[in-house]
Amino acid sequence: MPAAPRVVIAGAGHAGGSAAAFLRQMGFAGDIVIIGQEPLPPYQRPPLSKAWLKGEADAATLALKPAAFYPDANIDLRLNATVTAIGRAAKTVTTDTGETIPYDHLILATGARARRLPIPGMQLGNMLELRTAADADKLKAALGPGKRLAVIGGGYIGLEAAASARALGADATVIEREPRVLARVACEILSDFFQSFHRAQGVTIELNAGVEALVGDGTIKGVRLSDGRLIPCDAALVGVGAVPNEELAKDAGLACEGGIVVDLAARTADPSIYAIGDCTHRPLPLYGRMMRLESVPNALEQARQAAADICGKPAPMPEVPWFWSDQYDLRLQIAGIPFDTAEIVVRGDVAAGKFALFHLSADGTVQAVEAVNASTEFMGGRRIIQRRKKLARERIADMAVSMQELAAS
Ligand SMILES: Cc1cc2nc3c(=O)[nH]c(=O)nc-3n(C[C@H](O)[C@H](O)[C@H](O)COP(=O)(O)OP(=O)(O)OC[C@H]3O[C@@H](n4cnc5c(N)ncnc54)[C@H](O)[C@@H]3O)c2cc1C
What we know:
The chain is an alpha/beta fold. It has helices at residues 14-25, 59-62, 69-72, 133-141, 156-167, 188-200, 247-251, 296-310, 375-386, 393-397, 403-408; strands at 6-10, 31-35, 75-78, 83-87, 92-95, 100-102, 105-108, 112-114, 127-128, 148-152, 171-175, 204-206, 211-216, 220-225, 230-232, 235-238, 242-244, 260-261, 273-275, 280-284, 289-291, 322-327, 330-336, 343-349, 354-360, 366-372.
């Protein structure tokens, strides 16, 4: 009898842990080995900039699955180990713990790492990044009444950390190189809204502000801006984006274009190797483009795709990409990606902090919906985008027309 096939998963994060669970759910009976660099079993990163910082989440709520799940599901979870090379011809991976592990199917789920700034002072104490639970613990220790946090980068993670810092009584200054926060990921209306909201909560926001150096004597004391000003601080968080962990794939000769290139079954060009989650450059069939996404829904979708393909099941229906961010009592939910926006239609009341922004292409097709405290609009928006619907701007803006009617029209 042939040996049961073995799936090896490199990376024990959201995507890797979920792929193992989906494989078992879909009836995969062979060996599953997960190799993870971090000391923790797969956990959720979103709370790290939110509930975890505020002491509202513990290790158990952070964990993707209860500890017993892995032995119960006969999943061999090997932590504190890094996959260092892939031997494609022999179908093996090697680890920094000196092991060579054969695979029938390999899933690369190596995620992304925080981008570093090429400026002096990055080695100073209390210079922080936020990617892992260990990073979050360091940040948490630096926050509290009277403490001053400088946040370099006004993206989602930076803004969430600033909101958490304020909730803990710390001062927060967000330093953003662009003329608005969230410049890379949200439209101007949304940026303005979040800027005003943060400022009203006491966050200082410096826009068009380049960072020249980090100043301190062993520990950070301030952030020197390009215009010469010094922003004094006790800790600084660098939140300037993430870089995909694609080196393993590159070294093995797999195509990478700012992420490991995969198809809609999460397959690389090597039929035995899949890649899922933040480390991939993936197709977006609704938009006819390829892109790297950094979100939990994407990690789950691709984990499902890889598991289905390995189990010989039909490919799951492509999903509308979506993302969320929590800041103060604001829940932002974004469905779709605003490529080719010709017009933005506001539904709801921006000043009241309950609204949705519908991005329409030139022919009126809804490309994306950014919803603040408007989950009905977000849910309806997802359905509308999935069906590639064209909507009239007057009907979107008219609150007398329900989302149900809009979605059905
Ligand atoms: C602070 C923070 C807040 C976030 N908030 C949100 C949110 O609100 N909403 C949302 O949708 N998304 C959010 N995200 C993004 C989301 O967490 C990621 O998209 C998701 O974790 C991606 O899963 P992944 O498995 O691809 O990567 P990860 O979860 O990063 O896991 C990758 C794992 O692989 C390990 N690894 C890397 N290389 C190797 C190797 N060679 N060998 C072994 N192991 C390796 C890494 O150490 C890591 O543990 C947030 C992320 C962060 C950091």
